[in-house]
Specification:
Layout: H1 7-30, E1 41-47, E2 53-60, E3 63-72, E4 77-85, E5 91-97, E6 106-115, E7 118-127, E8 136-137, E9 143-145, E10 149-152, E11 163-169
Antiparallel strand pairs: 1-4, 2-3, 3-6, 4-5, 5-11, 6-10, 7-8, 7-11, 9-10
Keywords: Signal
GO biological process, one term: positive regulation of endothelial cell proliferation
Organism: Thryothorus ludovicianus (Carolina wren)
Length: 175
């Protein structure tokens, strides 16, 4: 399920999802009986310009997240990816962002794919919240969401990306 349409729906999701991801990460990390490797995992990586396609992946148990992109301009930027699994393994989260807020690179393409889960909610932002600034979501027509991926929409994406957030549901949880 993508974010609701309209600016009020986007604002509601923009406020709800970060809180849900923080709760998910905190609950998973605080659970003393959590299986090994189930605690949220954050890794830093460089987003490199030059027009070549690059990928960065993280896995947690049966779940995985891969960010594939191509960017131009500037120099390397430090980004982070955090993956987390709820204590009941029903939800998987993947967040990809530039901690400094705004990226100065021009993204020619991007795609974030999840493995082992189906996307329930995904949102992409041109600017990530930092200090007193808020997240600035991409317009809905700039990106598309499928069951397992969030990607730029050819011809509509305006080359700005600073954050992606995905919440996915374990399909085995539906049985």
């Amino acid at each position: 399920m993508a974010a609701p349409s309209g600016s009020n729906g986007r604002r509601a999701w923009a406020a709800l999802v970060p809180a849900a991801l923080l709760c998910l990460a905190a609950r998973t990390a605080a659970e003393p009986g959590t299986a090994p490797g189930a605690a949220p995992s954050t890794a830093e990586f460089d987003v490199r310009p030059g027009g070549e396609v690059h990928s960065f992946s993280r896995s947690l148990g049966d779940f995985g997240c891969t960010f594939t992109y191509s960017a131009q301009g500037g120099t390397n930027e430090q980004w982070q990816m955090t993956v987390g699994v709820s204590d009941d393994s029903g939800l998987f989260s993947c967040s990809i962002w530039r901690p400094q807020g705004k990226s100065y690179l021009f993204f020619t393409q991007f795609k974030a794919e999840v493995k082992g889960a189906k996307i329930e909610h995904a949102m992409a932002y041109s600017q990530a919240a930092v200090g007193a600034q808020s997240d600035i979501p991409l317009k809905q027509e700039e990106f598309e969401v499928t069951e397992t991926a969030v990607s730029h929409r050819e011809g509509k994406f305006r080359f700005e990306l600073s954050k992606l957030m995905i919440v996915a549901k374990n399909p085995r949880d539906e049985l």
